[in-house]
Amino acid sequence: MKSSAAVTPLPPLQIGAYTLPVPIIQGGMGIRVSAHRLASAVANAGGVGIIATVALSLASKYYNKGKDYFRANMQALADELNWARDNSPTGIIGTNCMVAIRDFEAMVRTSVEHGAQMIISGAGLPLRLPEFAAANPETALLPIVSSLRAATIIAKRWYQQYKRLPDAIVFEDPNTAGGHLGATRQQLFGEEYAMQRVVPQLAEWARKSYNDDIPIIAAGGIWDRQDIDRVFALGARGVQMASRFICTYECDADEQFKQAFINAAEGDVVIIDSPAGLPGRALSSEFTRKLFRGNEVASKCFATCLSHCRCRDAEETFCIAEALHHAQQGDLSRGLIFTGTNAIRHNKIVHVHEIFAEINGPHD
Ligand SMILES: Cc1cc2nc3c(=O)[nH]c(=O)nc-3n(C[C@H](O)[C@H](O)[C@H](O)COP(=O)(O)O)c2cc1C
Q1: Which H/E stretch holds residue 27?
Q2: Which residues contact 315 (CB under 8 A, 6 or more apart)?
Q3: CA 13 to mean position of chain CA atoms
Q4: Nearest to 36, CA basis, from 103, 106, 109, 115
Q5: Residue of 363, 360, 339 whose CA lies nearest to 244
Q6: Mind spelling out the 3-state secondary structure of 87-129?
Q7: What atom in ligand 1 is closest to the CA of residue 122?
Q8: Radius of gyration of the chain measured on its C-alpha atoms
Q9: 242 C-alpha vs ligand 1 centroid, how far in Å?
Q10: Of all helices (H) and strands (E), which one includes residue 26?
Q11: Quick one: which atom of ligand 1 is closest to the CA of 50?
């Protein structure tokens, strides 16, 4: 890791009621790759720590073999938010709530009730997010989009229906980001959704239509200060980074999960078809090799977590909640490891504060 001595700090960023000392948001990583430990470490380093809310209950005391899965998720989320706050009394802590999940509304309401200061929401258009988060108007709301069109639809609808605008917009580049991607397989790797095309479009829209009151946050493939300077030059005012935080002591996944990144080599990042109907970016593993051979990873839906699911509805493919849960627990023969394109840049486990120091200089 480079010395932090010569680094000029990035400008702080205002998002709604909150001033981010460092304009870095840690991307939500389900299932329990980003829970309270990672989120609080990022918040303590001056960024925004994000707990991914999807299927939080699976390793909790509340989950009882499929019974009360949705209630257990709410209880587990309340715990994670409380623990994160205990670890970081003054940092900014938020949650990631996916529209495609059946308990999206419950996850948003529980987040607000238990003090989430930001909610970041994608995997579909979060058109009703302000309604579900209405109990605390100070909770900042950030939709994730992959196009200007999606941002326009959300901003118009929120204003018409709720007299509210997004506090910031996260643009996630499907060509580089990890997890479920906001483009079809055919659209992947094209120009249409590329960072260098969409971020300037969004920045111009925010300036012309909203007097620069909606900061654009760039996500996907961001690793170091050079990447951040590059997207700031395109018009972004903050970044969301996920994969970079996986190989940290504080990341909530098992050691085996982290080791898989350290062992990854060129060509080990693959695209899978998720039962959610979207492509997903993952690390090559025993699981993905079985998946590509066909019919070797069949498993039964046990939680009915997704609104649309080819595993539950058509008994095709695999249960993604189960596969992501196994990976987080370190069972890599049955586990699906999501990652962005930067997976192979990991070579050791570090502390979150070291990543911040490298990018932004030391934080008091
Ligand atoms: C392991 C993993 C899990 C993820 N889970 C989620 C999730 O639950 N919800 C979500 O909106 N995005 C999820 N993402 C996407 C990230 O939040 C982030 O926007 C994206 O990966 C940014 O690209 P980067 O990983 O190259 O920094 C996930 C990404 C990874 C690597």
Answers
A1: none
A2: none
A3: 19
A4: 115
A5: 339
A6: HCCCCEEEEECCCCECCHHHHHHHHHHCCCCEEEECCCCCCCH
A7: 11
A8: 19
A9: 6
A10: strand 24-26
A11: 17
Q: Is the domain covering 13-253+343-360 a CATH 3.20.20.70 domain? A: yes
Q: How far is the CA of 255 from the centre of ligand 1 (A)?
A: 19
Q: 30 CA distance to ligand 1 centroid (A)?
A: 8
Render each residue's pLDDT in the chain as its tens digit; 364 residues.
444 457 899 999 999 999 999 999 999 999 999 999 999 999 999 999 999 999 999 989 998 866 788 999 999 999 999 999 999 999 999 999 999 998 999 999 999 999 999 999 999 999 999 999 999 999 999 999 999 999 999 999 999 999 999 999 999 999 999 998 988 888 888 888 999 999 999 999 999 999 989 999 999 999 999 999 999 999 999 999 999 999 999 999 999 999 999 999 999 999 999 888 889 999 999 999 988 888 677 677 777 888 888 877 777 788 888 899 999 999 999 999 999 999 999 999 999 999 999 999 876 6
Residue with tokens 């992501």: 324
Q: Is the CB of 242 under 6 A from ligand 1?
A: yes
Cα separation, 330 vs 81, in Å, equals 24
Nearest to 118 by CA among 10, 15, 251: 15
Burial of 201 (0-12, 13-18, 19+ CB in 10 A): middle
- Residue-level length of the chain: 364
User: Which residue's C-alpha comes closest to atom 16 of ligand 1?
Assistant: 27
341 Cα nearest atom in ligand 1 = 26
Ligand 1 pocket test, candidate residues 141, 243, 305, most atoms within 8 A of CB: 243
> Is the bond into 262 cis (omega within 30 degrees of 0)?
no
**Domain residues of the chain, as ranges?**
13-253+343-360, 255-341
